[in-house]
Fold:
Amino acid sequence: MTDRHGADRVREDTHGVERGFPHREAVRASLTALYRRIGPTGVDRYPTSVTAADVALSPGEDPLLGATRVAGVLVRHLRLPEAPAVVSFRRMEHAATVEPAAGPEYAVELNERFRGRPRDIGAALAHELTHVLLHRLGLGFPDTGRNEILTDVTTAYLGAGWLLLDAFRQDGAESQKLGYLTPEEFGWVLAQRAELFGEDPSPWFTSSAAYEAWRRGRAEAARERRLPPLAGAGWADRRRYARERRLGRAAPGAPYAFDGGAPATGVAFPCPVCRQRLRVPAGRPLRARCRLCGTVLDCAG
Structure:
């Protein structure tokens, strides 16, 4: 990871939660960066998500002992080198913090408030321990904000980030969100993972607000998998795409770009799995293989 100053911290929002997809490009860039670093075989090492039973504290379980146990579960899930997990509670501004380069143990500090909110301990630990994983992989962006988004994306895509989304609650008694992605962006990343591994995370959500955000993120991911030049695009999108291809230029905001004159002879678009930019011939149906993630795509051309 790039050089950092101080500890990594997971953010906690208790009001004014941002919604929608404001970090769309940073989220996509994070997913592409993850594939470039570990490749599809690396992603395939995480075929199942961490289970709710493994990261839940039992009724009456001591919060410190329980948090230490859950940290060990997440260390193993993230395939970090086996080492003791040292968890402590203290008063702080952020929800949690970790020194990713510290060792040999994994030392995570949790906000004192989590003693009374044991259901969210796993979420905070998942984000912090993913920081350690990214540090060991040497994967990061130059600025802190994008690194935090990368951490959330990686946590979700490798099977532990559903905990962060489930920590999102908005009702008359409680309002809370952990992490740097919006709830819908967490839902989008989880939908990308669900499509890849055939998972259905919906039964895991204990928060109705989290489930609704997952549903919206899944809908957006499904919409993107049906955009031209992919063969599954709807009739209206295909008609618009064909008209723009004849003109040799895409409309502003289109998810594809043409080259080669009018009509266009080539089209560039993002892989729906890893978001790597692909370029294929335009004007005829074909099958394209993404060189980064290996996904084979049916294209309308």
Notes: The chain has a mean pLDDT of 92. The first strand starts at residue 8 and ends at 10. The first helix runs from residue 24 to 43.
